[in-house]
Design brief:
- The structure holds 2 protein chains of 2 kinds.
- Chain A is of the alpha/beta class.
- Chain A has a domain of about 140 residues: Rossmann fold, CATH 3.40.50.300.
- Chain A has 9 helices and 11 strands.
- In chain A, strands 5-6-7-3-8-9 form a 6-stranded mixed sheet, sandwiched between helices.
- In chain A, helix 5 links the parallel strand 6 and strand 7.
- In chain A, about 40% of the residues are buried.
- Chain B contains 11 helices and no strands.
- Chain B starts with a helix and ends with a helix.
- By secondary structure, chain B is an all-alpha fold.
- In chain B, helix 2 packs across helix 3, helix 2 crosses helix 8 and helix 9 packs across helix 10.
- Chain B has a single domain, classed as Orthogonal Bundle (ABC transporter involved in vitamin B12 uptake, BtuC).
- The chains are: A alpha/beta, B mainly alpha.
- Chains A and B meet through strand 5 of A and helix 6, helix 7 and helix 10 of B.
Chain lengths: ~250, ~270
């Protein structure tokens, strides 16, 4: 098999503007089978926008997107569901695909929320809902998973377990994953390729390479760079309310 | 069997209730009740066009309403006016133009009350065919677009990202709305069609914890409203549309007690 055949989605110099302002510009990246590509960057750096371009949600874009699969699982960053619609977890699981009951149970068990199957979606906590979102995305055994902040609101131990699960899924299903995360530490243990965004690609490469990159240091600070390269979780920086990393 | 006007009205009403149930759910879920109203108001224009050109009324309404829906989409893109203002603009102007056009058609006698509020005496055997064949087609198409339409109702981006083509489903749904208005106008009347779409569905929402149940209860609610409404229309000599919608309101009020019970159980 050639390398070409392993590519699931390829972005070539893509850009998107809204209200005459470029949200991202000149982004190129590709996701291959069995590989995890992580997008990092400060707030408003165009991470979610890039994911939405890759998914085909934004249509009037500059550049090209080539998609080689239609079997996609998506966990959006923000999801607002209107409660005029009565929806149980199991109805939500079947939203975009007709799945067998055991495929459903398997996915819900993996993310630890099988007991919520008959619960109404409106009664879940933020963390529980996030686990359901992830279960829904993996239940259809996708070739490409796009995860936009998949563990937000999940408790700390759950967060680690879910990242391990994501890693395991990529191996088991041999699917490609495009991951967006704020949490630099956890991300780096699993990622094959990191793309650091700030409206454009400021640097990319293996986690180690990115950590050594000067532009990355300028963006996240020296401390974050150290964290990245040693793969340890230490609370050596603080986040302000909007999630931005405070420079010490 | 269909010689009796009341049997004809009943059969027509049953056919309509089967279609307004599931469509009504989407109208409520997608917040389209004013959109439905706008299409219904424009139906009057469709009726006058049908009379002027001696054309089939249902087909004429269907075409006019579809065009109004298209104009709405264009206006939404071209102007900075909010959606509800555009809906009001189209609803009332098409109603006004329709009424003015009727004023010019002095050679035809119009039963305006019948058009606005429905008339069971007006349902012919041909209308039954239109309702049942048209209704079956609407349900068939709805079944076909159910998955993308439902998924995008819950979350547009999920549906789009996972390849369900929600824009096409939305466009087809708009056409189905025009179609249900076209086939049910004689029976329910153009001012009350949206009531027939929303009120049984609102009742169903109070009784359901999942979408399938809501669709089924919505159909049952519609059927009961038709039965109760038509019998009282016959009994008290009231117009059919308002009688059906008033019956639906009574059912809705009963369904509120069910909510009260569930809340008490939870506490």
């Amino acid at each position: 098999m050639s390398i070409e055949n392993n590519i699931l989605v390829k972005l070539n110099e893509v850009g998107f503007q809204q209200n005459k302002k470029w949200l991202v510009k000149g982004v190129s990246l590709q996701v291959e089978k069995g590989k995890i590509v992580t997008l990092i960057g400060p707030n408003g750096s165009g991470k979610s926008t890039t994911a939405k371009i890759a998914l085909g949600i934004y249509k009037n874009i500059e550049g090209q997107v080539e998609k080689f699969t239609n079997n996609i699982g998506y966990v959006p960053q923000k999801i607002s569901i209107d409660w005029t619609l009565p929806l149980r977890v199991k109805d939500f699981m079947l939203l975009t695909d007709d799945l067998k009951d055991d495929a459903l149970d398997e996915a819900l068990t993996l993310t630890g929320v099988k007991h919520l199957k008959d619960k109404n979606l409106g009664n879940l906590s933020g963390g529980e809902f996030q686990r359901v979102l992830l279960a829904r995305a993996i239940s259809k055994k996708p070739e490409l998973l796009v995860l936009d902040e998949p563990v937000q609101g999940v408790d700390f131990t759950g967060e680690i377990a879910l990242y391990e699960l994501i890693k395991k899924i990529s191996e088991k299903l041999n699917c490609g994953i495009l991951l967006i995360s704020h949490d630099l530490h956890t991300v780096m243990t699993a990622t094959d390729h990191v793309v650091c965004l700030n409206g454009h690609v400021c640097c990319s490469g293996s986690p180690k390479d990115v950590a050594r990159n000067n532009e990355y240091k300028a963006l996240f600070g020296e401390q974050a760079s150290q964290t990245l390269s040693v793969y340890e979780h230490k609370h050596d920086h603080e986040h302000s309310n909007d999630g931005e990393i405070k420079k010490n | 069997m269909f010689d009796d006007f009341f049997i004809r009205a009943l059969v027509a009403g049953i056919g309509i209730a089967f279609v307004t149930g599931p469509l009504g759910c989407f109208v409520v879920w997608r917040r389209l009740s004013y959109f439905g109203d706008t299409l219904a108001h424009s139906a009057l224009l469709g009726v006058t066009i049908a009379y002027t050109l001696e054309f089939n009324i249902a087909v004429s309404i269907f075409i006019t309403s579809s065009i109004i829906a298209l104009i709405l989409v264009k206006l939404e893109k071209k102007t900075n006016l909010p959606g509800d203002a555009l809906l009001g603009l189209l609803a009332h102007s098409s109603l006004a133009v329709g009424l003015v056009a009727i004023g010019f058609l002095t050679f035809i006698r119009f039963d305006i009350m019948g058009l606005l509020f429905g008339d069971i005496l007006a349902v012919t055997t041909d209308d039954l065919l239109t309702i049942w064949i048209g209704g079956a087609l609407i349900l068939l198409v709805l079944r076909f677009i159910w998955k993308p339409l439902f998924a995008s109702t819950v979350n547009y981006e999920l549906a789009e990202a996972e390849g369900l083509n929600p824009d096409r489903a939305k466009a087809i749904f708009t056409i189905l709305m025009a179609a249900i208005i076209a086939i049910s106008i004689k029976m329910v009347g153009l001012l009350l069609i949206t009531g027939m779409l929303i009120i049984p569905t609102a009742m169903a929402r109070n009784l359901s914890d999942n979408p399938q149940k809501m669709v089924i209860f919505s159909i049952i609610g519609g059927l009961l409203s038709v039965f109760i409404g038509l019998f009282s229309s016959l009994e008290f000599n009231t117009p059919s549309g308002p009688s059906i919608v008033a019956a639906a309101l009574v059912l809705f009020i009963f369904s509120l007690f069910k909510i009260k019970q569930t809340i008490q159980l939870k506490n």
